[in-house]
Each structure stands twice: as C-alpha cells, then as structure tokens.
Amino acid sequence: KASVMDGDKFDNDLPTESPETSKAKSELEKLQEDRKTLPIYPYRDDLLKAVEDFQVLVIVGETGSGKTTQIPQYLHEAGYTKHGKVGCTQPRRVAAMSVAARVSQEMGVKLGHEVGYSIRFEDCTSEKTVLKYMTDGMLLRELLGEPDLASYSVIMVDEAHERTVSTDILFGLVKDIARFRKDIKLLISSATLDAEKFSDFFDSAPIFKIPGRRYPVEIHYTKAPEADYLDAAIVTVLQIHVSQSPGDILVFLTGQEEIETAEEILKHRIKGFGTKIAELIICPIYANLPTELQAKIFEPTPEAARKVVLATNIAETSLTIDGIKYVIDPGFCKMKSYNPRTGMESLLVTPISKASANQRAGRSGRTGPGKCFRLYTAYNYYTELDDNTPPEIQRTNLASVVLSLKSLGIHDLINFDFMDPPPAEALLKALELLFALSALNKLGELTKVGRRMAEFPLDPMLSKMIVASDKYKCSDEVISISAMLSVGNSIFYRPKDKQVHADNARMNFHTGNVGDHIALMKVYNSWRETNYSTQWCYENYIQVRSMKRARDVRDQLEGLLERVEIELTSNLNDLEAIKKAITSGFFPHSARLQKNGSYRTVKHPQTVYIHPSSGLAQVLPRWVVYHELVLTTKEYMRQVTELKPDWLVEIAPHYYQMKDVEDPGSKKMPKGQGRAAE
Ligand code: ADP
Ligand code: MG
C-alpha cells in the first residue's frame, strides 16, 4: 500500500482524525485517502488548469505516480465527462482490465457501469460508461465507426513510450482530429523522459512533468554471463528470500510458458526447505492470465511472508505493483521482428534495451530504497544493449494496419503523419498482400471484399477466410475455426503424468488426417453438442477456459457476419469446401514437401517444418497451407491443413500460376495423397 510516511507530506490540509473514527472508515474512504498519497495528487489542480489551457498536453511521470488511475478521475471530477467520455488507451489488455477494475473500486461503482473497459472480443462498458479504458487497438477500431470520435471529450493515449503500432497510428489520427475538433482534449502520457519527441510531433505541445518519488536503487551485475538465465533467476529469488530483509520480489521473464516453468520449479524447491523458511507467495502475471488470478498480485503480502511476482514486460511500466523491493532482471524479452522481404514475422527472445533495463530497475525503488539484480554483466550492459527499443511499426507486418487506414479513407500511406515511418518495403509488402487477398484493387483502393474484411477485428488472412466462407457455404464452420485459432495454443493440455491419455484424446479429433483446422472445428462442434459441458472438456484434456473464450469470440464473429451480410450456413460434410475457404485466406502460406521431410514455402522459398504438435506431423502431406510460422529450434508451421495444388491456381490465379505448383517431372510422381478430396 502507498506508504503513510510519504503521504503525510501531502495530507496537511486534511483534518486530523482520531483512531476511533478511522477504524470505522469505510473501504471507500480508505481508497480516497490512498489516492491523496500518490505523487500526482499535489499537481491535480495545476494539471487540470493545463488541460483547460491547452488542447494537447504531454504528461510524463514515473510508473506508479498515478497517471493512469487518477487523471481520468480528475477529468471526471472536473466535469469533462458531462459532454462525452474520457477514453484512455493502454497497449496491453491486462492493463486495461486491471486499471479499470481499480478505478471502479476507487469510485465505488460497479465495473462496466461508469467505469468500463473494452478489449478485443470483450466489451465491459454500458450506456453509463464515462471513463473508458481500452486497448489502443480497440480505439483504432472505434475510429472506423466514429471517425471524429464524437462521443469522446478527452482522449488519453497512455503508455505512449511503448510505441505499439496501434499507438503510433493513433498519434497520427488523433492529431488530425484535434485540428478540426477544437473541443476535444488530447493527453499523451508516458513513463519515460523522452517526452520532447511527443511534444515535437504534436506541434510543440507543452510537457507537464509529474516529479517522481524515486528512491536509490542498488544495481548488482553478475560477474560472468549466465548460461541459463531462468535457473539463475530462480536461484536469486531463493537467495533473496533466505538472506535479505522483508520486501517483495519482481522477476521479469519473457512469456507465459517460462513463467509457468519458473513457478513449478520454485514451488518444488521451496518444498525442499520445508518449514525452515518463511512463506513465499508466488504470483504469475502475463497477458492471458485469467482475470480471477490477476487480482492476486495486488493483494498486500501478509506480515511474515514474502511475495514473488513472475511477470512479463507488462510490469515494466503498464502495471504498478506496490511493495516491490527487489527486482531480478535476466535482460530478455520477447520481441516481434519482421522480414519484409519474405513477409515472415517471428517472436524471438531478444536482449532488452538500456531504457528497459532502467525501467525494470526502477520498479524496486518506488516506496523505499531497492535492489536490482541484473543477470548479466556490467560489460554486457554498457557495450551490448541498445539504448532504446525500435518502435514496433518498424518491425512488424503492416497488413492489418494498412487495411484499417484504407477503410478510414487514408489512401496516401507514404505521406501519413508517422512519428517514425515504417520501412517503405514493409508498407509495400502489406499492400501486395492485401491486393493478393483481393482487399485492394490495382489502384490500391479498398474493394468490397476489403470493406467486409475490415469489419473483423482479425488478421486480414483470417478475415479473408471468413469472407470467402460465404462462397463455400461454410461460414458456421469457418467462424468456429477462426475463433479457435484466435484463442491461441492453449486448447489442449497435457498433464505430465497423463501424457499418453492426453495425446490419445487429442488424436481422436484428427481421425482421417483431417488437418489441424478441421480438428479444431471438431473440438468446438463436439463441445457444442454436449451443450458446452465442462465434464466433457476434462475427459478430453481440453482447457475449459480457452473453450469459453472461443465461444465468446465466435459469438462476436457471428454478429459480425450479419453486418457484412454473410449468411450463417453449415456445410459440415463437405470438408473440401471448408479447406478451400481456409486456402482462400491463407494461400500465401502454402508449402510443398521436400524429399527429406522438410517443406519449402512456395512464394518466397524457405525451409520449414510441420510443428510436432500438429496432427499431420507424422503424415507429411505433399502440399499444405499453414496458419503461422513459429521459430523455436527450427522454423515450424503451426496449424496445418492439406491442400491440393490445383486449388492455389483456382483460388488465387493472380498469385499462383501452374508453373508454381507443378512438380518438375510431375507425371512420374504418385498423384497427391488425395486425402484433401475425400
Ligand atoms: P501510473 O499510471 O502513473 O504508472 P497508476 O495510476 O497505474 O500509476 O497507479 C497508481 C497507484 O494505484 C499504484 O501505485 C497502486 O497503488 C494503485 N493501483 C493501480 N492499479 C491497481 C490495482 N489493479 N490494484 C490495486 N492497486 C492499484
Ligand atoms: Mg500507467
């Protein structure tokens, strides 16, 4: 909790209260007092004055100063919500949800009423909502329906330093809106001090600095590089726990899987200590963590215990966790990179930047002096880490962004007002792909297909697959597949002691080597037939939570079908039709089997493999279409379906010619495996 000592500095104007009355204080009053202890509080009136005086304001302040939770409330209290909503964007889903939950508590209202959040496939807002937290991507989507953001009086682009693609695009769009809507206010808030760049971009908007309270942080480096940073992190946690004074620990890891592994190992090792050591409460936090479990990281640590938070980058600036005194920083994060030449996108574990390392260290010095243990050498830090992470727009596939911009009527992408422009090659590649998918015509204008695609909050290839399902009369199956794919790779689970059972259960859905897409559809349909039974999920080693999410996504997609006037039709017995619909979206992702069991992608030849988790991993069909590539030990295709090469020419004649799909000397080769046609 915010320390009382610091709070005293600002509480002088409050009447002193006797212990009896404070005991009787309601939870809400307590929260109201906590608000007053935040670093931003003394600047409340100055800040409101600045918002009144200037249309655009850049706000900088340390993580935890109260920007995200307080500013929208201040604006509400000052009356800005009388004539419109205050929208506050977050780069991360979890942050949007958690912050909205906190603010609704502080305001004593039910989440989803006055305070709500909106993230992809989940809208927790209502007519009443005046403070709306949302992902930056959601605000972009809202712009498609409301290009002038008429229902908003203030837009706060929060965590601006994160520089996600959506945030970068929003910069350009809201800047333009502010020019013709003089009544809208724009706040650009950021945790780091390179605010000049934001100010420059927004025509020299003034910068409002919230002086931080930052205590000294002792930095410790390892003497030699660590061979296994995960193990080193776990050892460090235990060392701190047994040897250092009270205070919680925050460990930065790269993703869900790593966090789960760390949690398991830690639990195991702690067991070994028996009752010899104090309780260690382990709290994981990552993007897909179920909401119920997220709250755990914010609960105060009991007196005799210590908390260790295992977090992804999300704890770098997006979420503020109180009570952290020790930070363990292995120096890595998962980062997207994109090769515009091949169009391949990959998510790789990469060294962080110096800026990130310093943000991470800072998490330990918020409420008192802290310590940061860097699991790399000082030499490594000074000579090998980049100063800053390049903005995402320079290392990502832009197809989805380009489609959104085109549907907003922005044609001249080269001259779009980018803070940092994307590589021309990446823009071109996106245009090419959208043209191949028939979303754009030769002039680069949005087609009817493209307009329909843009309605779906999905990757353009998935949207195209759905739009194409109309033709093949299988929209029911295809939206189920899309929903299952959107949930990610958390459908099946494989408990360590029951792997054989789990694998058998999974392979049931693959009977007939139907391919991974159809298998996902079968899982969904079987679950639906049991009337969404939880028991059925247990019996089949399927994660109930993922299935429920898939159902929510599917419901939304069904609603969107109506909007683009696609009838919901089922064509369950014609697997070829379903596969053709899949191919209509994913034909750029086709690959052909090589003699040695590897595959070669057709358009931009590259060697790839079927992921071992695929139902086709042992089957090795001659031609496949895949959902995505993941790079682990090899470049793997994940979610694979067999196709017939003729389909490529039939479905995308502008993209594939016969010569692309003919085998040299094909006459002698056995004719396909033909399964796709069965
Ligand atoms: P900033 O945006 O400047 O980093 P925040 O407004 O997110 O700061 O956080 C300010 C304070 O609000 C935190 O120090 C913490 O005490 C509290 N807080 C924020 N989110 C939560 C939450 N979900 N649960 C409990 N406390 C929270
Ligand atoms: Mg914040």
Automatic annotation (TrEMBL):
E.C. numbers: 3.6.4.13
All copies of domain Helicase ATP-binding, residue ranges: 48-211
Top EC group: hydrolase
Protein name: RNA helicase
Species per Swiss-Prot/TrEMBL record: Theobroma cacao
Catalytic activity: ATP + H2O = ADP + phosphate + H(+)
Molecular-function GO terms, alphabetical: ATP binding; ATP hydrolysis activity; RNA helicase activity
Biased composition (Basic and acidic residues): 20-29
